[in-house]
Amino acid sequence: MSSDDESGFVARTISAPDGLKLHARDYGHDESPAFSTPPVICLPGLTRNSRDFHQLALLLSRDPIAPRRVLTLDARGRGLSAWDDDKSHYNLAVEAQDVFAMCAALDIPRAVFIGTSRGGLVLHLLAASHPNLLKAIVLNDIGPILEKEGLGDIRDYLNRDRKPADWSEAVDILRENHGVTFSALAEEDWRDMARAIYTVKDTKIVTDYDPAIAAQMQALDLEAPLPDLWPQFEAFRDIPLMVIRGENSKLLTTATVEEMARRHPGMTVKIALGQGHAPILHLGDIPAAIKDFLAAS
User: Which whole number is the average pLDDT over 214-232?
Assistant: First the structure.
């Protein structure tokens, strides 16, 4: 599903608690009664941005039966949000505070949240600190345990950091990094992914995030023990929860999903066939599964 990724929304600028300017896209922002249900707020992964959710946001906000207001956030240092001079602020606790600040600034007392990868880790912290904010949760290929093999893959492709000369080469780079685990993607899907990940600055095609964010992952010591987030996951207990796992994901295992379901009876599980970490949410039957979950929540 290829589409113009610069229309269908209103751009919002929000001040974080420390004054840093955050950018968000607001789809279905009118005051129509059709949007009286809690909005959907989408939080992207480590080096990703609001454009990852553009097609899904259009599908949800323009649904003929149950349209939803959708907001997609550029976390600090990503997309059109400002880069932080204090690089130590690129952490889950600060980013969770930013999400809460966005909801307060836009007068959103409660929302459904979709968190991809790091965005889902942020939701673990919000569930522990602000559970009343969370109407329902969709975790996209993330859980309380991060597998070292998956983290190693992320670190490795960030370390390669090959610079594309043009958009065709940007697509080639993505295929080299992810083609084995994303067999479900068609040609236009790879082009959409490139447009979501890369941007143009000073006539050059570059990744759209502060390099300090990637540096944190590049410096990760995978020999050291990794903490888990099971205590924070317990805060989801009374919140409707859906987990989407990429069929070929190395970051979120089947065993972890099964343990999540054991601890959260009633949890909905969706497998994104032919996708790895992290699944693209507007492809195949995933939008229908998300809509069904929203309707039941």
Answer: 89
Say which DSSP state 264 is in: S
Residue 194 lies in a domain: no
Would residue 217 count as lying in a domain?
Answer: no
- 134 in Cβ contact with 114 (< 8 Å): no
CATH number at residue 113: 3.40.50.1820
pLDDT at 246: 98
Please say if the pLDDT value at position 239 is more than 80.
yes
Mode of pairing for the β-strands spanning 134-140 and 111-116: parallel
Rounded-to-integer distance, Cα 257 and Cα 80, Å: 33
Distance CA(96)–CA(94), nearest Å, equals: 5
Cβ distance 26 to 71 under 8 Å?
yes
Helix pair 54-61, 286-296: axis angle to 10 deg: 50
Predicted confidence (pLDDT) per residue in 51-98, tens digit: 999 999 999 999 999 999 999 999 999 999 999 999 999 999 999 999
- Mean pLDDT to the nearest integer, 30-56: 87
Query: CA 74 to CA 81: how far, in whole Å?
Result: 6
41 touches 120 (CB < 8 A)? no
Residues 6+ apart with CB under 8 A from 166: 205
- State the total domains in the chain: 1
**Tens digit of each residue's pLDDT (9 = 90 or more) over 99-137:** 999 999 999 999 999 999 999 999 999 999 999 999 999
Residue 183 lies in a domain: no
Q: Is residue 211 part of a domain?
A: no
Only one residue has tokens 């919002």, namely 12
pLDDT at 33 over 70: no
Q: Domain range spanning residue 234?
A: 10-148+227-296
- Could you say which DSSP state residue 81 is in? S
